[in-house]
Automatic annotation (TrEMBL):
Highest taxon of source: Eukaryota
Naturally occurring in which organism (per UniProt): Bemisia tabaci (Sweetpotato whitefly)
Domain MYND-type as annotated: residue spans: 391-427
Gene Ontology CC terms, in alphabetical order: centriolar satellite; cytoplasm
The UniProt record lists the keyword Zinc: yes
Keywords attached to this entry: Metal-binding, Zinc, Zinc-finger
Protein name, UniProt field: MYND-type domain-containing protein
One Pfam assignment: zf-MYND
PROSITE patterns assigned to the protein according to its UniProt record, in alphabetical order: ZF_MYND_1, ZF_MYND_2
Length: 440
């Protein structure tokens, strides 16, 4: 069994026990990047365990070591970092070229949220969240709101990276990761709603009363937020971490399935009557979902048959009133974000300057070390998965590596040529250091 794993049980326990909360003083330091690599390997191991339906050591280790609250805090921390510090870094350094360390910070958020989604699939994970479940719900709503705004304002997929500046490419990378994080957030919301009996009542209040998450998810479906089209009219859908060209637009992706299952759970759970008033306006907006629930979709995701039936009944019924037996609610405040905002008030420029020095002035050798650690982690995953390595350009099975850096895989020469613009900087950096090392 261990031959099929990235980490041994002993390594899993050690890595999980070593998870500690980051702060703005440590982000971007060598110790922080090392901690990120350990977390990344835990996430990959957790994904592998879930996909192969084997004993989930990572889930058990994170729960038993009481690390779920720390993972929620990490997600909120990076969210605040992107809002408060990143814009200042880029404003102070508009011509920076070495943005790879910043990408690692983006990716750290995706790893944390992906790991949370994997653990919270189990009801015991939701229970162990305790009060941090409220922090997590607020975080997920913020991410999904960003996606709703982004997908409303930009429906065209821009694939021409040759004319993009370094900062434009960085923004594109951030947005691509955001859509993956959003897909994980949909899964998290679904699991929390499934387990409302074992999380604080404030979670339901946040979902239905303080925020209208059913209508937010409805908007994401209505806008086809995980779908883009290029200038030629080709359709792309976000799935498995990237935008992929789609030939059959009726075929449901994993992300679309998460979207619909979240909608199903939000509307058909037993708690809705206590928290969500189905006004005429809400009825009309939710009723727009019916146009998507055609036979092909229902065949691919049978649970949606119940949702279609519920929506049909809602359309012809009188507006139901909320139950008069409302639960007694003690509102929980979200301390993670407010605490970070308060502790750093008035110091954002100073923190950004320090982070700029730390992240943008790494030596070539330090940058290569970071790039190799990320590459090696993905190679470890490819080695134990049946799919094997994938082409960096088209995503098909890859059989050839870049002959210079030995880090990127391709299915053939045409894809390698197409991908060169994106791979060039990393390849030159890695190859240059290797040449220096061999000559010294």
């Amino acid at each position: 069994m261990e031959s099929e794993c990235i980490l041994t049980p002993g390594e899993i326990d050690f890595y999980a026990a070593s998870i500690q909360p980051s702060d703005f003083e440590t982000i971007g330091t060598s110790s922080w990047f090392e901690a990120h690599e350990r977390l990344q390997r835990l996430y990959q191991q957790a994904t592998l365990e879930a996909s192969k339906n084997i004993e989930e050591h990572v889930k058990e280790a994170i729960i038993s070591n009481l690390k779920l609250q720390i993972l929620v805090y990490e997600a909120v921390l990076i969210s605040v970092w992107k809002q408060r510090i990143l814009p200042r870094i880029l404003k102070q350094n508009p011509n920076t070229e070495n943005t790879f360390p910043i990408y690692i910070i983006f990716y750290h958020e995706a790893v944390v949220v992906g790991l949370l989604q994997t653990v919270l699939y189990h009801s015991e994970g939701c229970e162990y969240l305790q009060d941090s479940a409220v922090e997590l719900v607020d975080y997920c709503i913020l991410v999904l709101t960003r996606i709703a705004i982004s997908s409303r304002d930009a429906k065209e997929l821009k694939k021409d990276k040759l004319k993009a500046s370094t900062l434009e490419e960085l923004r594109a990378q951030e947005e691509t990761l955001l859509f993956g994080i959003g897909a994980s957030c949909l899964g998290i919301i679904r699991y929390l709603v499934e387990n409302l009996d074992c999380v604080p009542v404030t979670v339901a209040t946040r979902l239905y009363s303080d925020n209208d998450v059913p209508l937010l998810v409805c908007q994401l479906i209505d806008q086809e937020s995980w779908t883009r089209r290029n200038a030629k009219g080709d359709t792309y859908k976000y799935t498995d971490g990237e935008w992929k060209k789609i030939t059959d637009v009726q075929e449901m992706t994993k992300t679309e399935a998460q979207l619909w299952l979240a909608m199903h759970q939000l509307l058909l759970n037993k708690h809705i009557i206590h928290h969500y008033e189905l006004t005429e306006s809400r009825k009309n907006r939710l009723g727009r979902l019916n146009r998507f629930l055609h036979e092909l979709l229902l065949d691919q995701l049978p649970p949606l048959i119940d949702l279609k039936r519920w929506l049909s009944q809602l359309a012809v019924s009188q507006v139901p009133t909320m139950s008069s037996k409302k639960p007694f609610i003690v509102e929980l405040s979200t301390e993670f974000r407010s605490g970070l905002e308060t502790s750093c008030a008035g110091r954002w420029d100073e923190i950004a300057e320090e982070h700029a020095r730390r992240l943008l002035q790494l030596s070539r050798a330090e940058t290569v070390k970071l790039a190799n650690s990320l590459s090696n982690a993905f190679e470890s995953l490819a080695d134990v998965c049946d799919a094997g390595p994938k082409c960096a350009n088209c995503g098909d099975r890859a059989t050839q590596k870049c002959s210079r850096c030995k880090n990127e895989w391709y299915c053939g020469r045409p894809c390698q040529v197409k991908q060169w613009k994106n791979h060039k900087e990393h390849c030159n950096t890695v190859s240059g250091v290797k040449e220096c090392e061999s000559s010294s």
